[in-house]
Structures
1.
Amino acid sequence: MIDKRVKNAKEAIQGIQSGMTVMLGGFGLCGIPENCINEMAASDLTDLTCISNNAGVDDFGLGLLLQKHQIKKMIASYVGENAEFERQMLSGELDVELTPQGTLAEKCRAAQAGIPAFYTPTGYGTEVAEGKEVKDFNGKPHILEHAYEADFSIVKAWKGDYSGNLIFKGTARNFNLPMAGAAKITIAEVEELVQPGELDPNEIHIPGIMVQRIFQGENYEKRIERVTTRKKES
């Protein structure tokens, strides 16, 4: 078994350079690679292109990189709860490519599977389709979408072993699943790192062949993006 462990997030992100394209798993604040994001925010990286469902909130997740203007282009499906993301987009400080959520997921999965492009009806007749090839299938127009080409993919899992096999927990599986193995190098941070053979093979979501670096993270905050509660009945 190949031992893919690195000591920590600082060692894990070695090789990420300014100007690179980085995928980051998570949905809102659920299942985001907190340790690696914090380490990137503490670095002098700039001009990054980040692919993620959204950009967290102002003071957490990718919002930390936006605060320091480390991101040049954001590829996401929506702005979410991040006011700074919205401000930079509207002011023209940040290049933003909004992509339908299902298309974004499939562009990641296609890259993971080695599929260079695919046709989808989603977005036809809207700005999303501008400049893209259109082809009819069964009398319905589809637009051609290309798989993402990323330098690094950073995902967060619940459990993993030294060989890179990963298990996600609940909805934290989200974009982490299709992003693992979808870039030249995949980094996985996990809550629990175990010996090879300790994970039930029937429960593994991502095989180790898709992961190049893995480490056990620490001090996970697991924030809630927006807390909504019912008013107490009198």
2.
Amino acid sequence: MISRDDLLQDFDDVQSESGCYFFQHVLPQFNYAYCLRSTEDQDLLVVSKGIEDRKFASSVTMQAPACLPPGAPTVFELQANDYGFTHAMAVPHTYHGHLKGRLEAKRGQLFLCIPIFRCEFAGDESADAFRDAILRTVAVFDWTRTVSPKISVYFDNPGTGGGTEACGAIVTFATLISEVKNLSGIVNGFIEITNYTGDVVEVLSTSEGAFTLIRNRKDEEAMDVDSLRSMLEHFVSR
């Protein structure tokens, strides 16, 4: 359990409201706003960049399950809110570095709760995969961000020399569409796309500007690039 006095070791001003502690990390260009709900069983931390919305942050902690597992993420639903987030994901202290330093000994039950759009995380990410995602693809502390679906691609493009290993790589939607366009006319290339639920589609190109979408490893549909883009946007965010 983390107390107000504990927090005052590292933060100049800690305020109590609605059962939570509120404090800030002030940087030259922006601030991080923190909300901490501390109980005997677990400490729940919500962090936002450039926005202080105490009501919403507090509500995220109130909607978290009472007993979070200590070794893995937990995804839970959120009530309708002004930001459009559908869920939140709570990750244990081994997944993040918040409140390290003088509070290290008190971090054992500290869970970081991030509001998300459901398609942004599968919910079974390892600590390394989570840290990589928040550094490269999902700006989790920006509550005004656009949706950043979790997309894994496995591809080979002999025309550009690009490709990935069979385990795939996490990319943004913009990168996916760029690779689709690069595939145009490369008849011996392919792109395999996995969304956050683990569903897979494959894209081939039969000729310049013509593509084939394969669902369920067998159902084929011819598409132009605009139709393909629209379908893929739905596939990764549904």
3.
Amino acid sequence: MNLSQVFRRKIFWFFDVLKGNDIKSHFNDIKELIENPNSQSVQAKKDAYLQEILQHAVSTTWFYQKHSGYNSILDFPVINKNIIRDNFEEFRSSKYKAKNCVLVSTSGSTGAPFSVLQNMSKRCRNTGDNLYFSYQSGYEIGQKLIYVKIWPDNYKHNILSRFWWQNIYPKSVFQLSDKEIEVFIKELRLNSSKKSFLGYTSAFTKICQHLDKVEADPVDTNVQSIITMSEGLNDYVRNRMKKYFGVSPISRYSNNENGILAQEDNTQGRSKFIINSASYFIEVFDFYKDVPVPPGERGRIIVTDLHNYAMPIIRYDTGDIGVISLDENNISYLSSIEGRKLDLIYDTKGGIVPSHVSYKLCKYGDYKQFQLVQYGEKSYKIKLNTDKKVDEAKMLEEFKGYLGQNARIDILYVDEIPLLSSGKRREVTNTYHSKL
């Protein structure tokens, strides 16, 4: 049975009407708030959302009640995964029963698994966010969406599946051998319907590397949009996906515990992430002190969720690093998102090295995988999954220029760089600072 995209779209909105137009209302609200940032009424609504969640938090949770005398969000503490995990019940709102909420969990790729409760309106908000930002990339409800991530071993994609009805095609990151990619590409070539991609950068890397290896022609399969998530988008994937599928990918910044926080807008030829200010209040803080840094300065990304009333999350340290900048209209955007603090590389003097330095390795050869690791204050490893030896002397000379002339750098040739439990693969990691 092959439902048309138009029919699937109508079915989606029909069920939303039956539920009171919750998703449609959120979608329209998100569109208004993001697309009219200079409007006084829009700013007033954003301010109201912030004040309402703060008041709700101090009125209905044990954790925040001690801040009931607050004057502004500045009076609230910075929290993180460990604080929420250790005080889970104290973060729960007394107005919401767990059975009426959804428990959302992260994979635990950077530590122990982590969960939060979300009320149903928050879930609808996330769907509205997803639809809005997907529309911005070229996706529409009803299109085939090829979703590349970890899928449960017992997942069955059939007519009883919600994803089947939404025309979502599941593709596991663990099913990307050369043979599996070859079959996958053949299936794409046979399907001329409009489609979009959503998945990890590392998964798209494997697909592009296979196409490079077989010297494939462009895959004419009517791709409308490509969104990468959870991992930084590099130039190799950006250029190769454009070459093979005719569309430039864009990067989405999101997490499981909140939702879509920002999405890249590369229409102006520069790195610019539109902040989802309709659903979140985002700040960037100093690395060591809980104070905001000036625009243009790198720091910790701190998120306040404006719509999760079941478990208010205020000033949440995501563990990610970024830079907030101001455009010509004085509107905030994220000009850089560099991943987790513990995955930053430091030079031998303690200065932060831009994470994209790892892609300088690409000029020395074609690899199945590569990884830059800091395992000591002045000790580093470059792992290369390749059959050909590189010009090690030249590589060491260049990377000592980035890391320090007194850096101890080992080049290791490996057969595999394993995926994390989340299905992602880090190309930069720091095992030294994670122990400090």
4.
Amino acid sequence: MAEMKLDPMEMLLRLTGDLSAVRGRLQTLEDENLPATLEGLDTKVGQLKESLAAVVEAVGQLMADPEEEPPPEWPGTTPNWTDDLDQDQARELWDGLTEWCQNTLWPIYARPVWRPCWYLHKRLVIELTALWRNYEWSYEDKAPPTRVSEWHARWWPHVEKVLEKELSTCGMPRDGLPKPRHPVPVPVQPTMENENPPPPPFTESDFVDHRFFERVEKDIARRREPEGDDT
């Protein structure tokens, strides 16, 4: 087969066409300002990386140190003795109220107006429960000092008057009451026949009288059994 010879003129035309095509492509890239476009893309990618890093850091902080919830405005509603309490709820309420009254209210504030029969006065029990819950609210973490001041200036003086009124018909016979509602027994004085008479079951200076536990157990027993209690 005979060799095919390339025409120099044809080769020149081809090279000229290729060169023109390359120039056209370069011109297109220059017109599109490719370097600036690439630089802009690089900037956007950098910004996205920074944003992603900030999000990752924030999520890590939340997982490591969760934000504390703000303190509640109230430690729960004041328990209502007239509600349908079950036996467990009633016992918990009696225990909490009695402990606070005996350890805080009675020795520090209420001893001058206190009577051992206080628990027999329904209104008084309700008022003391509200006073107790208000006291706890006043001393909660991060509570402003004004709450404590308000308790001493407003809530306790109110209940103190309630105590005086509710217990005004209870007391010692020597108080001048013809028929005291819940009298405190007068100690029997020793005599020659009985030099060591038994002490009374309770005195005016006691926190509760001798019937307290019996009455509390009766109040608890009359209420409904807790749900899910098979006993």
